[in-house]
Design goal:
The complex is a heterodimer of chains A (about 120) and B (about 110). Chain A has about 120 residues and is mainly β. Chain A is built from no helices and eleven strands. Chain A starts with a strand and ends with a strand. Classes of the chains: A mainly beta (about 120), B mainly beta (about 110).
Chain lengths: ~120, ~110
């Protein structure tokens, strides 16, 4: 059974804290993604990675960074958390090569509240 | 850029009713199209997909047909169950300027009453 796991289901942090959200996949996928989900806005892509050590900005990268030191792990970092980063964060991995649509597998999400 | 528009929610139906959730898209070329479903407290799961015009994706009694002429991919089910209550997302696979990604609609919350 394919698995994408996220380190926390719920997280509460204070404004200004550095926050790490961890994502691990056990499917040997090369591509991994971080999204945030907000009511009425659907999912918006923050960052993605095609391979180890690689990262690309998505549609809303401001205030975030990422790290991919190993193929199975993709971390999202909030350098200085702000209240407008309160959201549901979803990690995904993908099983296809360049130009192929494939299928994305999602983790259960981390609901982050910044107070 | 590429975009997806879904019908506004929430949608509330009675069990065994017919379901349609509208989805239209704007894209360069002919992208692959997807429906994802998010059950309460869970991440998204792929429900069905279609990769070219006139393809019909189907799964768990749900169907959607890739309509190039109307740029649509409406989700349908003939008889819904309480267990179908979830949020449904339409999405397309976009390849623009060397970057490839899923572009999602805003989601439609579906509630089925017994």
């Amino acid at each position: 059974d394919v698995k994408v796991t996220q380190s926390s289901r719920y997280l509460v942090k204070r404004t200004g804290e550095k926050v790490f959200l961890e994502c691990v996949q056990d499917m040997d996928h090369e591509n991994m993604f971080w999204y945030r989900q907000d009511p009425g806005l659907g999912l918006r892509l923050i960052y993605f990675s095609y391979d180890v050590k690689m990262k690309e900005k998505g549609d809303i990268p401001e205030g975030y960074s990422v790290s991919r030191e190993k193929k199975e792990r993709f971390s999202l970092i909030l350098e200085s958390a702000s209240t407008n980063q309160t959201s549901m964060y979803l990690c995904a991995s993908r099983n296809a090569g360049w130009g192929e649509s494939g299928e994305q597998y999602f983790g259960p999400g981390t609901r982050l509240t910044v107070t | 850029g590429d975009s997806v528009t879904q019908m506004e929610g929430p949608v509330t139906l009675s069990e065994e009713a017919f379901l349609t959730i509208n989805c239209t898209y704007t894209a360069t070329g002919y992208p692959s199209l997807f429906w994802y479903v998010q059950y309460p407290g869970e991440g998204l799961q792929l429900l069905l997909k279609a990769t070219k015009a006139d393809d019909k994706g189907s799964n768990k009694g749900f169907e959607a047909t890739y309509r190039k002429e109307t740029t649509s991919f409406h989700l349908e089910k003939g008889s819904v169950q309480v267990s179908d209550s979830a949020v449904y997302f339409c999405a397309l696979w976009s390849i623009i300027q060397g970057a490839q990604k899923l572009v999602f609609g805003q989601g439609t919350r579906l509630t089925i009453n017994p």
